[in-house]
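During the reporting period the student researcher (J.K.) took over the structure-prediction task from the postdoctoral fellow and processed the backlog of single-chain submissions. One of the processed entries is reproduced below for the supervisory committee.
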Amino acid sequence: MYIDVHCHLDGENFGDLGALVAECAAAGVGRLIVAGFDLPSSEYGKELSERFDGVYFTAGFHPTELSGYREGDLEKIERLAKHPKCVAVGEIGLDYHYPDTDREAQSEIFLRQLRLASSLSMPVQIHSRDCAEDMLGILKANAELLKGGALMHCYSHSVEIAEQLLKFGMYFSFGGAATWKGSKRANRVIAALPPERILTETDSPYMPPASKYGAFPNTPLSIPEIAAHIADSKGIVRGQFEKTAFDNALALFKKLR
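J.K. obtained the following structure tokens:
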């Protein structure tokens, strides 16, 4: 009944991925979506999805990984996106965290990938850090490109921004950081969102939940703790929320069916 809608898996950090996938399945985390962040990682996600039944993937260029982007790469992302186990174009978006950010380039490649997803009637997984107003502006101006659905992965902006994004049919996923004592903003957003718009993720190998704080790597085995925290925060029976989160994933990512 559990799903990790956004994780990064590799043999370097996790060792035997076959053993990890089997352990996740035994713990009830039966679906894993491996997020691409550039062309090689997207191709690797495809390989993993072909090796393991419960693994799916996304394909796209992360805003801080554009140094490796070359003209013609989006055509390759498009071919990957048409794979039967590619569930979304992503992760794509904006990230203004670093001082050398090329905001113009990020916006341009973000829009190109939104258009690609729209042309394929596919959802997008959106990364958004330190850029709330620009992100909202782009999505407002291009709402028609979100017809395939959209997920704000590891959502970190305000309740007010979330309420505006809900108007576009947006979904929101939360990971281990939401369980930390200092994560007041994330928990205010969780409290404000309808359960039918919330998904669970780990962003593995990063952001372990409270019980594993400081540990590395984080793994999709953290999903039950994250789901329990969200359910408790909203006053929902845990088993009920687990089913809701899984159903939400099926509604957004049509290829999971």
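The committee noted the following: The chain has a mean pLDDT of 97.
J.K. will present the remaining backlog at the next meeting.
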